[in-house]
């Protein structure tokens, strides 16, 4: 037994740093969830703080919490409804381009925004939409309209989030679909042409069925992220004027925990969303097993 | 290929649509570039769309002359290089060690890794742990917590298992230890995968503003993106430039009158985005491959 382990001592030595890192930065914080049930202050130990039972879950009675839950679902569902079909559509369009230089150009340009941070995108939005000198408001002014305070309005927040999300990630998300399209047998198209099928018929009967497995995998994989709307995108766009619709679970945890110091309460909120996330992942895996005959792991 | 006229119209429509799409990506950068190269007070009057009307480099002189910005660049470059190289190496070591199918406890260790992908303690417990480890407000908080990536590890593991086993076995028969096999056989064969994952890791470090905003408090540790994030909602120039860190530029007060917060902001954001725009064309072939490698499973 010992000899078997000794024989692989180098392998264990290689794995060791990662095991330690995971212990420190993943498993210890999991133990830190105890804070959700204790009266913890920074500077004390999570092991010695007094137990408070479910007191930290009092936020469940607060209307503000439910507003946050509603905002989170609202944004994630909207992002899904627009964000899921968009790359499929774009991939179908790009696939129709026969001019290969132009095709490559479109692909390179559409992947580009993925590589910029949401902060840079927020600046872009600001330069176009801000009240003092933003391009859009300048144009509205020229057309004789009244300037619109896009970045500080509750009506415009969701369209801005969904629109900028589409702008940033649609091109990037086409990569998988474009790759799937290239694996379709060209002979199928030839045969269809002989039978007199037009372009639309070819797309409907060959291309779309050909990428259907990819579509279903992407669909399945996107379910767990429904609870995760992307703090990276929301936080830079959030301000006191649009807070009412912009506050989501992630920003709520951030504000109440790191900024206001309600560690117990915000850990409890975090725990709740982690558990929902876990349930979604496990459920998705079951679903995938049923549909694809194979789970994600 | 023969096309009837209806198809020609449809094709033209598609090309136009895609061209418009490209424009929507390229134009914002052109616009921000034009504003940043234009006299601020003049730009505020409106009418600058693509080309600067009253050309000046003063915005960039101020931005590049600002010590806070220069320092934040150093922090960003430092964490990007160190975080990417160390992160790839630590993760590769684990993936290579776990690629031995006969390793005792292998599936236990794999489960240990997998669990962390499914469930986490959340933001506050992580913050408390970083505090307990005395990592808060140090440079290392940018490096250590993200050193091991479970996702990258599984991609690497999959990739290494695709290397013919005979190759590795023969190296070991020739007396190479596991470390030597890794460095001389596995790593050279993994170059495309390492390039792709390295690129994604590096972009992640370059674009991360969160840890700079919440895990450090010293101004001297702030990365570029965090600086940008703080500047985003700034309402006057002194927030950007600091009180007197910019003596030289301030001395040219006549010119300063024509500088607006917006023109400075655009210059800062261009400066932070430029490195990505510059390396992008060279890295393109790697990232498509990277996405496809990463999506083999799932």
TrEMBL record, chain A:
Topology class, membrane: Multi-pass membrane protein
Domain of life: Bacteria
Compartment(s) where it occurs, according to its Swiss-Prot or TrEMBL record: Cell membrane; Membrane
ABC transmembrane type-1 domain mapped to chain residues: 69-284
Principal subcellular localisation of the protein: membrane
Annotated TM spans: 12-37, 73-94, 206-227, 262-282
Signal peptide, first to last residue: none
Pfam families: BPD_transp_1 (PF00528)
Record key words, sorted: Membrane, Transmembrane, Transmembrane helix, Transport
Record family assignment: Belongs to the binding-protein-dependent transport system permease family.
Protein's recorded name: ABC transporter permease subunit
Species: Cohnella hashimotonis
Organism lineage string: Bacteria, Bacillati, Bacillota, Bacilli, Bacillales
From TrEMBL, chain B:
UniProt keyword Cell membrane present: yes
SUPFAM superfamilies according to UniProt: MetI-like
Spans traversing the lipid bilayer: 9-30, 73-97, 109-128, 140-160, 262-283
Keyword Glycosyltransferase included in the entry's annotation: no
Start and end residues of each ABC transmembrane type-1 domain: 69-272
InterPro entries linked to this entry: MetI-like, MetI-like_sf
Record's bilayer topology term: Multi-pass membrane protein
Subcellular location: Cell membrane
Keywords of the record: Cell membrane, Membrane, Transmembrane, Transmembrane helix, Transport
Stated family: Belongs to the binding-protein-dependent transport system permease family.
Protein name: Carbohydrate ABC transporter permease
Source organism: Cohnella hashimotonis
Lineage: Bacteria, Bacillati, Bacillota, Bacilli, Bacillales
